[in-house]
Amino acid sequence: MNDLLSRLVNGQSLSLDEWEALISCTMDDSELFALARKARDEIYGRKVFLRGLIEFTSFCRNDCYYCGIRHSNKHAERYRLEEKEIIECCIAGYEAGFRSFVLQGGEDLYFTDERMVSIIRAIKEKMPDSALTVSIGERTEESYRLMKEAGADRYLLRHETADREHYSILHPASLSFDDRIKCLENLKKLGYQTGAGMMVGSPGSSFRTLAEDMLFIESLKPEMVGIGPFIPHHDTPFAHCRMGSVSLTLRMIALVRLLDPHIMLPSTTALGTADSNGTIKGLEAGANVIMPNITPIGERRKYTLYDNKKITGSEAGENIAALSSLLESCGYEASLTRGDCIRQ
Ligand code: 5AD
User: Fold this and answer.
1) Is the shortest distance between the CB of 136 and ligand 1 below 6 Å?
2) Quick check: is 20 in a domain?
3) Which domain, by its residues, includes 143?
4) Is the pLDDT of residue 1 over 90?
5) Does 64 fall in a domain?
6) Which of 223, 201, 222 shows the shortest CA–CA distance to 210?
7) Which phi and psi (to 5°) does residue 180 adopt?
8) Which of 40, 144, 177, 275 sits 20 to 30 Å CA-CA off 185?
9) What is the pLDDT of residues 16-47, one digit of tens each?
């Protein structure tokens, strides 16, 4: 076995240079993936945790250069679900069996703390045995606190890149790397199960920036990490940039699994979009979460972060029976439980 890989498996820390060497080395990834699956199976078994994803607003005040729903994209179709619709969507998901929901949206100022608190309270009151994840970007510590007190269990906020220079290539000057990291620290401090994450192959990324991501994940100790390939969107400044590599994305998933085997790792929609078999490949590299989309069908296609975003098959919330049998045929078992991160 590669010496760096065996050190990782033995729980030793790697330096930035060592991470870069491991991420970039030529190796047959089948051994790496087998180790990642073993690490996952020892903790979570063959269960794949399903979370119902509700993309409830495509309005966004930010202008991230990679994202299709960036503020400046005048072609993006904007929609917003009302409180009642969001709750109905969760109830329909609950009736279908989901016990874990993710409320995701752009940074839409319509959703004030008051509105978010009311939505979160209502969902937790009606479905107290469900876990609720919120993912609506950067907010004040006070806002995160209010949502936590209202009953939110988890928060997803990808760090996007742990390299300051790279962060400024991906975002306009109005968005700051320090603010992003501060938000993640606040979320951890408030007791959220916190999700970080990054795109693989975004413009300006390198093996070095991915190595920095690994060190960042090691120090933050997030409960969840979302990793997907960068996929260009035609109405963004990055329209003509190359898509991120699927095999490098899979390698990163496996390495994060080995870095901290307890992390909940989704096989992301971007991975399922970039490769027709990407969802299963993600599981085979060590992922253990899938987030089927339960947004009302009429709005679903409008939440286009990148071109050809998958809204069918394993990404479609209506098909959990089909998804469960697909998982079963691959030796996995779909789980509709809360799916909390198990920490030692
Ligand atoms: N390609 C891949 N992932 C993207 N995201 C946004 N735009 C893209 C894109 N073009 C990811 C970001 C964000 C998450 C909601 O979606 O990492 O945090």
Assistant:
1) no
2) no
3) 27-335
4) no
5) yes
6) 201
7) -60, -50
8) 40
9) 999 999 999 999 999 999 999 999 999 999 99
C-alpha 53 to ligand 1 mean position (Å): 15
E strands present in 60-210: 100-105, 131-135, 154-156, 193-200
Tell me, using a 6 A CB cutoff, whether residue 70 lines ligand 1: no
Alpha carbons 98 and 53: distance in angstroms, whole number: 10
Test site for ligand 1: of 66, 202, 213, 267, most ligand atoms within 8 A of the Cβ:
66
Can you give the pLDDT at residue 314?
Answer: 78
The answer to whether position 18 is within a domain reads: no
Tell me if 303 CB under 6 Å of ligand 1: no
Q: Kindly state if the Cβ of 233 falls inside 6 Å of ligand 1.
A: yes
Is it the case that residue 97 has pLDDT exceeding 90?
Answer: yes
Q: What CATH number is associated with residue 37?
A: 3.20.20.70
Total domain count, the chain: 1
Is ligand 1 within 6 A of the CB of residue 160? yes
Is 283 part of any domain? yes
**Cα–Cα distances in angstroms (integers) from residue 139 to residues 35, 111, 186, in the given order:** 38, 11, 10
